[in-house]
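Entry for the shared binder. Reason: the reviewer on the internal report wants the predicted structure included alongside the sequence.
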Amino acid sequence: QVQLVESGGGLVQPGGSLTLSCAASGNIFSIHAMGWYRQAPGKQRELVAAITSDGITNYGDFVKGRFTISRDNAKNTAFLQMNSLKPEDTAVYYCNTQYYNRSYKFNNSWGQGTQVTVSS
């Protein structure tokens, strides 16, 4: 079992910045990818950003250069730097990790989510 500890959410004004972090621990042999998804009320969960262990990144179309995902492989931690935040970025942000456990079984796990609210 893997635990994902998310932090960094909160209330920010439009145009402001936030940094989310997600630390994975537990029965992990290796992590393939870590990422962030978000879900606003009444909408489907969507990809925000993801990064592989090789540093390959993928972003949702709405990001448009405003967000940057990075990763500390040694600490099994991913970071999402969000700049130029807009009210439409308001959502619950969920950390996701795809990993192999110590039995070499591939797994996909989700964090509890952290609220990001962009409002004046």
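Summary line for the report: The mean pLDDT is 96.
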